[in-house]
Structure formats: C-alpha cells, structure tokens
Specification:
The protein has 177 residues and is of the alpha+beta class. The chain folds into two domains: 4-101 and 159-176, no CATH class; 104-156. It is 39% helix and 33% strand. The protein is built from three helices and nine strands. The strands form two sheets. It has a six-stranded antiparallel sheet with strand order 6-5-4-3-7-8. Strands 2-1-9 form a three-stranded antiparallel sheet, with no helix packed on it. The protein starts with a helix and ends with a strand.
Amino acid sequence: MLQPTSLSRTVFLVLLFLALQIRSEAQQFLLASQEGKSELTLLGTGAVVKFQYRGYSGQFQEFKGRITAITADTIFMESLKLRHPEKFQIAVVDILGFRGYSNARSISKSLLELGLAGGNLALYYGVIAPAAIGTGPAILISVGTGVASYFLIKALFPEKVKNTIGNGWSFKVIERK
C-alpha cells in the first residue's frame, strides 16, 4: 500500500515528467528571411501578424490575426475580434508577404488615440466652446481636428504589408526545441 508521502512523491514525479515532455517537444516557427541581407524574422505561436497571400482564384488577400499553430505547410490563425473570432488557415506556399505587430506598437497606438481624443475634447471645451463663434464653425473645427487625428494615426502606424516576396523575402517553416 502506498503511503501518503510516497503517493504525493509519485504524483509529483509523474507531473514533472509530463511537464518536461511537453517542454521538450519541438515547436514550429515561420522563418522569414530577406535575400542578400542578414535580417531574419521568426514568427511563432501567439505572434500578431498581417499576412498577404494568394487566394483560391489567384487574387491577393490579407488577413490580420494571432498565430495559433504552425505545421509543416500551414499557418493557423485567429482574428483579433473579442467576440466570435474567426479561425483561418494559410498555406505557407501561398504567403506573399507579412507585417508583424509588437505589443509596444499596439500600446503606443492606443495611447496616441486616447491622447488625440483627449486633446480634441480639450480643444473643443477649452478653446472653441468659450469663444464667441457660431455652431457651424465650431463643428467644422471639431470635424477637421478629428480627420487630422485620423490621418496622423494612419501615417504613424501604417497597416500596409511591407515585407513581401517582391522585396526578396522568403518563408519556410523550421522546428526548434
């Protein structure tokens, strides 16, 4: 009969063995490299990426999401929607380009959006509302600053896929332990 300490030691050893077994399994990554340059990008599970790929009838398509799994010939992804995210898969041979997104980029973009929204409110309530101008010009100034803010965000944080096969990038799946 097993003693309580012996049982807990056995359970601990089994869990430790399973944890080490899971950790030692090889993970697959998408290696993106640019011809003639030493620049390499390693995309793994959890990375947020926008891929440009060749669709079923040969047209260019794009999908932005988080990589959920990588196999030898397919990238499995999930969209960034909070409710009902789409699941998607792209064949590695169909990838034409990519753009990676870091956490710092997402945080910076969100902070800039909040700052610009706060700045627009401060402009309206601090400058425009107390001034003796009519409603029409006040609305035009507010809309103008909103549109300028939108284009500033688009200029500072472009969404266009920049690393493409046309620029010498190639893609292959590698295995790392």
